[in-house]
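Please decode residue identities from the backbone states below.
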């Protein structure tokens, strides 16, 4: 990072209260060496604004999931620096990184990762239970109300629909009040109706609860729920769109595919 870029970052994220929930500077992720080296991310700079819903899109192999995994501290970078709020995560030791992920980051994945022996409420509070923390009762009630699970809290995962299970996963990510939530194709295993329900709840969590969400998706309809879409190709951010719609995202992807094949 240049001195000027670092100064801008420091100015905008003092004490974790700045504009950015996450930032990356000159992040490169490479696998292998020499002739077999594959660059998944190529000197990426990006800022994720607080209280906003950001979607990341791109063709297979573009680096979109790698970028999310690096931003979330699930994967290491080859070069560059990453911050969650004002905390730099690059270079942290495993225990420090685990603690930061537990305290500041929420995750929603295609596989709901719910424990079948626990009911919905127990699955929602499980991360906090493991950490020895008691949930904020008022906040937990608000999250449960937002995702529409008030009548299903005593049900186990096998008694819930796919959409309801994913809503439990969303509530689990929200309940600990993380600085940022990352979703990797969170509606990829859902039918269109259940997917729309979950996306609506994610949108509401941003609008009503002030949450910050970063979602990797291949679906223009899902991206249309976001405030901003980042487009990746060959490990680089090549475009972005604000206030997207499903149609505008689809048209952008078509133009992008046309350029790649021409």
């Amino acid at each position: 990072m240049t001195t000027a870029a670092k100064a801008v970052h420091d100015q905008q994220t003092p004490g974790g209260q700045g504009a950015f929930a996450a930032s990356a500077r000159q992040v490169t992720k490479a696998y292998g060496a020499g002739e077999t080296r594959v660059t998944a991310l190529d000197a990426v700079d990006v800022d994720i604004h607080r209280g906003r819903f950001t979607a990341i899109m791109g063709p297979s192999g573009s680096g979109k999931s790698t970028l999310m995994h690096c931003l979330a501290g699930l994967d290491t970078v080859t070069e560059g620096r990453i911050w969650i709020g004002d905390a730099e995560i690059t270079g942290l030791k495993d225990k420090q990184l685990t603690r930061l992920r537990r305290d500041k980051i929420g995750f929603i994945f295609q596989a709901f990762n719910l424990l079948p022996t626990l009911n919905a409420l127990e699955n929602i509070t499980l991360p906090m239970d493991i950490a020895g923390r008691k949930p904020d009762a008022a906040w937990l009630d608000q999250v449960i109300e937002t995702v529409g699970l008030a009548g299903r809290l005593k049900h186990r995962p096998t008694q819930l629909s796919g959409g309801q299970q994913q809503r439990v996963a969303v509530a689990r990510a929200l309940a600990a009040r993380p600085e940022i939530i990352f979703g990797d194709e969170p509606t990829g295993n859902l039918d269109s109706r259940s997917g729309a329900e979950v996306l609506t709840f994610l949108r509401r969590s941003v609008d009503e609860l002030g949450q910050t969400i970063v979602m990797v998706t291949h679906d223009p309809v899902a991206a249309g729920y976001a405030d901003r879409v980042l487009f990746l190709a060959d490990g680089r951010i090549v475009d972005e769109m604000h206030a997207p719609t499903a149609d505008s995202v689809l048209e952008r992807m078509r133009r992008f595919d046309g350029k790649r094949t021409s």
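Observation: The mean pLDDT is 88.
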